[in-house]
Design brief:
The complex is a heterodimer. By secondary structure, chain A is mostly beta strands. Chain A contains no helices and eleven strands. By secondary structure, chain B is an all-beta fold. Chain B is globular, with a radius of gyration of 14 Å. The mean pLDDT of chain B is 90. The chains are: A mainly beta, B mainly beta. Chains A and B meet through strand 5 and strand 10 of A and strand 4, strand 5, strand 9 and strand 10 of B.
């Protein structure tokens, strides 16, 4: 089954404690992306990757890092989380880029206390 | 700034009726538009997309209409079913070197028995 898998699904943590949200896709997609979803704001792109070892900033990259060492994996790293990063996060992938439908994971709800 | 908005945050329809969800976009340089459905606790799911060289596109029980003159996009769902209850949001992709996908905040569709 084609899918994007995120882990963990839920996490409550404290300010400053580094965390990583993993994302894996099994569709051999080149393009992967991270979004955050906040009430009333819609999805906003954090970082994206056009292919292995190619990453770039989205609209709201501050406080986040990503890496793309393998085609299937695209982890999101919060080096020093802060309360304003409390949000619902989605990983997505598409075959080539933004002008194609993206497949989304089921989300990771992060609460930073 | 550029934005994609929705006319109504909520929409209730009777089961079996047709639903129409509207979306306005402001970026005249957008050339790709897409609709997603998001059920509670899940990630967005692709419904249908359309490129700016088309006015209408049909899928299974869904139709997307694009009016570039007034920068308006609509999603029509035929014979709405209980399983169609979800948040629906549109997104538009700005063409050019700085490709940006802008998501609306969504319309909650409730199907009444």
């Amino acid at each position: 089954e084609a899918q994007v898998t995120q882990n963990p699904r839920y996490l409550i943590t404290v300010t400053g404690k580094k965390l990583t949200v993993t994302c894996s896709q099994n569709m051999n997609h080149e393009y992967m992306s991270w979004y955050r979803q906040d009430p009333g704001l819609g999805l906003r792109q954090i970082y994206y990757s056009m292919n292995v070892e190619v990453t770039d900033k989205g609209d709201v990259p501050e406080g986040y890092k990503v890496s793309r060492k393998e085609k299937r994996n695209f982890p999101l790293i919060l080096e020093s989380p802060s309360p304003n990063q409390t949000s619902l996060y989605f990983c997505a992938s598409s075959f080539k880029g933004l002008d194609q439908p993206q497949h989304f994971g089921d989300g990771t709800r992060l609460s930073i206390l | 700034g550029e934005s994609v908005g929705l006319h109504l945050p909520t929409l209730s329809v009777q089961e079996g009726d047709n639903s129409i969800i509207n979306c306005a976009y402001s970026n005249s340089a957008s050339d790709y538009f897409i609709w997603y459905k998001q059920e509670s606790g899940k990630g967005p799911q692709f419904i249908i997309d359309i490129r700016s060289n088309m006015d209408k596109r049909q899928g299974q029980r869904v139709t997307v209409l694009l009016n570039k003159t007034v920068k308006h996009l609509s999603l029509q769902i035929a014979a709405t079913q209980p399983g169609d209850s979800a948040v629906y949001f549109c997104a538009d992709l700005r063409r050019g070197s700085a490709r940006q996908l802008t998501f609306g905040s969504g319309t909650q569709l409730t199907v009444l028995p």
